Amino acid sequence: MDAINRCLEGLKRLDVKYLTLYAFSTENWRRPKAEVDYLMNLPVQFIAKELDNMIANNIRLQVLGDMDGLPDHTRISVTRGIEATAGNSGLTLSFALNYGAREEIL
Fold it and tell me: Taking the alpha carbons of 23, 26, 34, 61 in that order, is the dihedral positive or negative?
């Protein structure tokens, strides 16, 4: 999470408007359950820790991918972050979460 924050700070100084981070592929569901559970908690932790900073820094959060396929706790947290930052007009931080390029093509 610290690496994301350092990146966001640098991009803000450079006036970059968009950052997309590939967070979880649809193929990742095949990983061991403990690993998937860990990965599904990362967005929850990030939003809990960084939401106030995103609001203060005018960062808008969005998700690319199938949110309906996420565990409830992840989907609820991500939705909260999206809604809380919807009016922000600075950098747009997109997480590719439960995202698969194959689904985009089909």
Answer: positive
Rounded to two decimals, the pTM is 0.89
pLDDT at 104 over 60: no
Into how many domains does the chain fold? 1
Rounded to whole angstroms, the Cα distance separating 106 from 43 reads: 27
Q: Is 6 within a domain? A: yes
Query: How many C-beta atoms lie closer than 10 Å to residue 65's C-beta?
Result: 22
Of 22, 58, 27, 19, nearest to 43 by C-alpha is 22
Residue 24 lies in a domain: no
Rounded Cα–Cα distance for residues 30 and 53 (Å): 33
- State how far the alpha carbon of 98 is from the alpha carbons of 14, 32, 46, 56, in Å: 29, 16, 16, 27
d(CA 49, CA 53): 8
* Residue that is written with structure tokens 């599904």 in the block: 40
Q: Confidence band (pLDDT; 50, 70, 90) for 12? A: confident
